[in-house]
UniProtKB/TrEMBL annotation:
Subcellular locations according to the entry: Membrane
Protein name from the UniProt record: Dipeptidase
Uppermost EC category: hydrolase
Taxonomic source organism: Anopheles epiroticus
Transmembrane spans: none
Amino acid sequence: MRRRKPTEGFILCGIFFWTIIAHLISTCLAAQLEERMEIVRKVLKEVPLIDGHNDLPWNIRKFLKNQLREFRFGEDLRDITPWSTSAWSHTDLRRLKEGMVSAQFWSAYAPCSSQHLDAVQLTLEQIDLIRRLVNLYPQHMALVTTADGIEESHRSGKLASLIGIEGGHSIGTSLGVLRTFYQLGARYLTLTHTCNTPWADCCKVDEPGRVPHIGGLSHFGTLVVTEMNRLGMIVDLSHVSVPTMLDALATSKAPVIFSHSSAHAICNSSRNVPDHVLKRIAVNGGLVMVAFYPHFVSCGEKATLKDVVAHINHIRDVAGVDHVGIGAGYDGVNLVPQGLEDVSRYPYLFAELLESERWTEEDIAKLAGRNLIRVFRQVEQVRDQLEAQGMLPIDQSIPPEDILGRSYCRYSGPRT
């Protein structure tokens, strides 16, 4: 029998010792995380968790051609094709409940390639899809169009479902279409997507070597923002250029939002918000809802939950805790941060924030939903004030020269 050398015994004892220490540390950290998770659960039972942007409706169109009879939203879609094999799928009712999501803005999206063609029709079909989806699950979902409705739905235990239109090209340069979308339940309009409209520049023009089309908002673009104020529709500045951000902030009488953007100072994507605009957001009373897409968070293909926390903290530092929210962008991205793999993971984000003494329960409540509800209420108050002042619908059309030379499908007869 070989005798064990004394050094081998010391090594084995050392391995055993550090194994015990690692286990104790792991147990302690797990206990601390569970304590913070309990605080998060308590907060989210009292305050609705509101996410500013989810692209599930477009995935339903992409995968199922909007045929909802084939869509099993109440089941775990990770077990059902084509969702189970798609990197773009992060959402179902089970995981929304696990993530304690109380309100979701669903995106009614039409791609930029539909501009000047059938963008209005596509957007109408996506609004119809969202409304039909909600109607299929009346025990779990409710269509909501007001700030009060979010809180009422939260108290009843239903997912408040709100409609946001992603891309100003969806209105077809018509304020009448904008008003119709509002009547159908849309409560925000993202002024552009990744393409310029005839009245607003998108974020692409801020990239090196690109030339602005307008330099912000045209005169008609300011009318769009003004009419949104009159209607009580939230102005969403995600996807727009920095000059468009500034023009919209100068025009709007109501707070504005970024439904799914992050901090430019941390990741210099043109989709993110620079510090000088964050300071203007604080003055405006608006809100930046932080996106989770790694290319907006780490400027690369990989990111972590801690990277998202860094963006939240930076926006808080510059604009204030009253001006930051959550707009993950699930189902519209094919990459997600480690630790935020789907809609079930929101509580872990809040628990991570609570690890810092600077974040209180009240702060978490603001980030989760109170900030958005405040903005929504102020938008409604501006609407009511303008109505009391006798403001009428704006009936101006876009000047023909603004669309000159475009392949615009347009009736050439009499117009208002």
